[in-house]
Write a structure and sequence with these properties.
- The structure is a single chain.
- The protein is globular and about 65 Å long.
- It has 2 domains: 134 residues, Aspartate Aminotransferase, domain 1; 249 residues, Aspartate Aminotransferase, domain 2, CATH 3.40.640.
- The chain has a 7-stranded mixed β-sheet with strand order 2-8-7-6-5-3-4, with helices on both faces.
- By secondary structure, the protein is α/β, with parallel strands linked by helices.
- It binds pyridoxal-5'-phosphate.
- The site of pyridoxal-5'-phosphate (PLP) has 14 residues, from helix 3.
């Protein structure tokens, strides 16, 4: 039996999405920019995908841009915000983010720092949440951007984006500034309600990744609120209103739209069902496996459970589980395994001890996860941890 508990790394595509994409690839293969009928059909498919995507996050279709991945969306925002502020008459140059962002945000920030921007990386507490007072203290009139993720990919902690938005809006009102707020909501969409004109009304830009909500890999979404000044990342033929050039990935856009629409159906009920299975796994681990530390907060996103199994090595347990058809992750699998040699930067920032970081595993669920999978995964996990502890360290 297979238990796929690595949904924060990527999800299984909806069958409906696969069917639609195959149909479009086969029959609607025109270039949306072409002036003939086949081009028009392709353009219609793109328009439909954009409309559904916009509806799913409560914004206007004109505010939705399609990219090649969440990483591209994040890079576009970070590098693009720095663009306008480089103008000589404008010396605003501070960017505020957190220590626990995904590398898709952290790496462009490191690059901007090398170029002379000032980057403030807010600390997090033991529950992986930012300190809003530190944010308020860090906001200055030369701040150009705040970038805080909605849900942390390793722990599932939910950041107070609504409140951060209010702080930003109030600061801008009081100081006559135009600080922008970006959120990487890659791990949040399809699990938490997101309404760009409701709870996220103070968010100016938001990144999403299609393969995290049962859509195709290689497709990202970038929400940019109307009127926001951002330098384009990809220049060329002027697609996406000149903001993101390159011939549109028509099946990918259509598939992303469909997946987005399906992901927000009965959101509350689905999230509760996923949370129930996550809680079951957590309860069984706490009851039957000694010496563990739960690294995910109780009020975290429904789909993630990060646990440290003391006196083990997460990587060894992961491979042992794999033998039983149980797929999990050590920390973040969505960054290349070449870059995570030093151990999780997120668990480090939360103040975990090296032994706790070394024994950490992330279980991530989706709407496809079943009770049988959880039972199977738990049995395999208990055996793996007991065996490792009996044999002692393999080092
Ligand atoms: N941001 C977060 C929070 C993620 O978890 C990921 C995971 O992969 C990304 C960005 C990058 O998305 P993509 O794989 O589409 O580039």
């Amino acid at each position: 039996m297979i238990a796929y508990l690595d949904n924060s790394a990527t999800t299984r595509q909806y069958d409906e999405v696969t069917d639609l994409m195959a149909d479009i690839a086969k029959n609607t293969y025109g270039n949306p920019s072409s002036l003939h009928a086949l081009g028009f059909e392709a353009e219609k498919a793109v328009k439909e995908g954009r409309t559904i995507m916009a509806r799913a996050i409560g914004c206007s279709p004109e505010e939705v841009y399609f990219t090649s991945c969440g990483t591209e969306s994040d890079n576009t925002v970070i590098m693009g915000c720095a663009g306008p502020s480089r103008k000589p008459r404008n010396n605003r140059k501070r960017i505020i983010s957190t220590q626990v962002e995904h590398p898709a945000v952290l790496e462009p920030l490191n690059e901007l720092e090398r170029q002379g921007f000032e980057v403030i990386r807010l600390k997090v507490d033991g529950q992986c949440r930012v300190d809003l007072d530190e944010l308020k203290r860090s906001l200055t009139e030369d701040t150009i951007l705040i970038s805080v993720m909605t849900v942390n990919n390793e722990t599932g902690s939910i950041m107070p984006i609504e409140e951060i938005g209010r702080i930003k809006a109030e600061f801008n009102r009081e100081h006559g500034t135009s600080v922008l707020l970006h959120t990487d909501a890659v791990q949040a969409f399809g699990k938490l309600p997101i309404d760009m004109n409701g709870n996220f009304r103070d968010v100016d830009m938001m990144s999403l990744s299609s393969h995290k909500f049962h859509g195709p890999k290689g497709m990202g979404v970038l929400f940019v609120r109307k009127g926001t000044r951002l330098t384009p990342f990809m220049l060329g033929g002027g697609q996406e209103k000149g903001f993101r050039s390159g011939t549109e990935n028509v099946p990918g856009i259509a598939g992303t739209g469909l997946a987005a629409g399906l992901s927000v159906r009965n959101l509350k009920t689905r999230s509760e069902q996923i949370a129930e299975l996550r809680d079951l796994l957590r309860t069984r681990i706490l009851a039957e496996i000694p010496d563990v530390r739960i690294n995910s907060p109780e009020d975290g996103v429904c789909s993630v459970l990060n646990v440290s199994f003391l006196r083990t090595r997460g990587e060894v347990i992961l491979h042992s589980l794999e033998q039983q058809g149980v797929y999990v992750s050590t920390g973040s699998a969505c960054s290349s395994n070449h870059s995570s040699k030093k151990g999780s930067h997120v668990l480090n920032a939360m103040g975990l001890k090296p032994a706790e970081i070394e024994g950490a595993l992330r279980f991530s669920l989706s709407e496809f996860t079943t009770r049988d999978e959880i039972d199977h995964a738990f049995t395999a996990l208990k055996n793996a941890v007991e065996t490792f502890r009996k044999l002692g360290s393999f080092r």
